[in-house]
Write a structure and sequence with these properties.
mainly beta, Jelly Rolls
Length: about 375
Amino acid sequence: MIVRWSIFGLVCGSGLISDLAAQQPSLESVVTDVRAAVSQDWQRGWIQLFDRTTTFGWRGINPSSIKDGKFELRAGDAPRTSAQFGGFALHLRYQLDPGGQAELRLLANPEGRAANVDHLSLPLKPEYPQLVVQVEPPAPSQSNSTIRFLFLNATGQADTEPQQVEVALGRGYLGFRVAAGTLLVEQISVLPLLPTSEQFKSLTAGAGFDSSGLANARAEMNAEGLALRGGPGYLATTASFGDFILSVEARTQAGTNSGVFFRCIPGENLNGYESQIHNGFVENDRSRPEDCGTGGIFRRVDARRVVADNGQWFRKVMVVCGGQISVWVNGYQVTDWSDQRQPHENPRRGRRLEAGPIMLQAHDPGTQVDFRNFQISELPAR
């Protein structure tokens, strides 16, 4: 495998960035977010891979490794995320012992060990405790991902100009490997890079939505976004998605039950997996969802915490790849579920991996839910 490295300035010249990346935050703007201390701001699209109290969303790490709000990793440790990512920006804050040896692994295959074949390794620097990365997935008909990265000191100053590498990897896990010393991980923030377009901003033909399933529901576009009222019924995407990253903002009124259905059987009524939208919780305890909880997978696994509130906009980010389903609400991961059931065409009865439309649910006559900033992208092939 050929891996191409280069040094480039923060202001990238024409031809270095694909059309998709040109629509997305540059490495320069990500560094600006980091220096402004907003890389934990869910309203800007960031999600957190470490909640500083649990190992939720991770594999290969013992809960006892969390000390004082940090992952404490020692020689031989090699944890990874349960979710896979394709195009994204990343901000990592860490502490590595002087003389320690540790690496961040990008686009990793958990079964593989060969650098630049099964993953890309970025050796961490004890003297520069912050790392900013941008991963641009392969463009259509191409196989290489483009990775740009920059180390920063504690005050946000760069160690050198950003570096760039191209590697024939698509989607994969994020992880670490420690060879010597102790690595303390304080923050792992990810900004999914999703395409911006005029899709899903209108109900007119060709704009991405199919309204034939609305039935007793009503849908309209207004100054704030998509208003879905009444029900039962649904609004579907015209395109189908299998392995994908979806980001959407929603707002519900008290008593509203809705959901984002995915991998639906085309032409059938909400016959898919459901990522619930319901902000109720029991006895003032957000860890006890009233009805699965926003971000939970209905009838499969409850959200571990109800993060959103009725009457306020919230952001849901879903990463769906194979049988693994991961969901964040306002940047906080609420679902980490792997569907281990036997395969079945109907996801109500078994594991469905086939692509299908996304459906936004209007559950009943009392439904009052709004959506905006609907963005979705298929994950690149492995």
